[in-house]
Specification:
Elements: H1 16-35, H2 39-51, H3 64-89, H4 92-95, H5 104-131, H6 140-146, H7 150-181, H8 191-203, H9 210-230, H10 236-262
């Protein structure tokens, strides 16, 4: 049975300077890679503006496949920079624990628990944020892209739910980020402080869902980080839970869209 992370020996420390350098280099790679797939469309808009200066520039067309490609490219770029840093330190397998768990049944139980827990967080967390005046999470922009067509639904489930979000975000947040935080002076041995910090950072990129979306997503990040710790740092339970939740949400949105089309 995997040991909980808080029962393990303290990790070798890293300095705050190297942490900040690593963190911002990963964030920069993630951001730049999210823009790259949109460059041809942006270049066309700029070219049309030059050719027809009297015409107002058209709104960028963010199609489903294009947005999905930005999510995937971001995850790839972020994981590449993470791999380079950890390989340089010789700590890749120590930080990104993707080895087969000692017990797959136990891992699947944690994954199912994480899935159910996340659904409950979205359900009751949305009510809480609304009561607090923060608004409810609004993922309608993404879900509209997911339900654009059967082909786009399949693309989003495979490429985004399972690869970019389920695998990629867990490697970045519950793997790389938590490992880095666990090595910092002032945070070493303080498991709950690490959990809270990584959860808050996990919520920030979900600003497109509003303040309520960031708060609820941070709560989900807290749960997934706790599951990672309970699995001794192994990421598979968190990966499976994250991917299953996104798949369920996308599937429900698609089913609802089909009902709407049928009406």
């Amino acid at each position: 049975m995997d040991k909980p992370a808080n029962s393990l020996v303290l990790k070798q420390p890293i300095g705050w300077l190297i942490f900040l350098l690593q963190f911002f280099s990963v964030a920069a790679a993630y951001f730049v890679a999210s823009i790259l797939p949109t460059l041809p469309a942006l270049a066309e808009i700029m070219l049309n503006a030059v050719r027809n200066p009297e015409m107002p520039p058209p709104e960028p067309q963010l199609g489903s496949a294009l947005v999905a490609s930005t999510v995937v490219s971001s995850a790839l770029a972020g994981m590449l920079v993470v791999w380079l840093w950890l390989r340089r330190e010789g700590r890749l397998q120590e930080a990104i624990r993707l080895q087969a768990p000692e017990s797959w049944p136990r891992t699947l139980v944690w994954a199912v628990g994480g899935t159910v827990g996340t659904v409950l967080i979205f359900t009751f967390g949305a009510q809480l944020t609304q009561a607090l005046g923060l608004g409810t999470p609004d993922p309608s922009f993404v879900l509209a892209l997911v339900t654009e067509s059967p082909q786009m639904f399949a693309l989003w489930v495979v490429a985004v739910a399972w690869f970019a979000a389920g695998f990629g975000e867990e490697v970045l947040y519950r793997g790389f980020l938590m490992d880095r935080l666990e090595r910092l002076a002032g945070l070493r041995g303080r498991a709950w402080a690490v959990l809270v910090i990584q959860a808050l950072l996990f919520g920030l990129p979900h600003a497109y869902q509003g303040m309520g979306g960031m708060v609820v997503t941070a709560m989900v990040g807290l749960l997934l980080g706790w599951i990672r710790n309970r699995c001794g740092g192994n990421l598979w339970a968190a990966i499976l839970a994250h991917a299953m939740v996104d798949t369920v949400m996308m599937s429900l949105a698609y089913a609802d869209a089909l009902g709407g089309y049928g009406g």
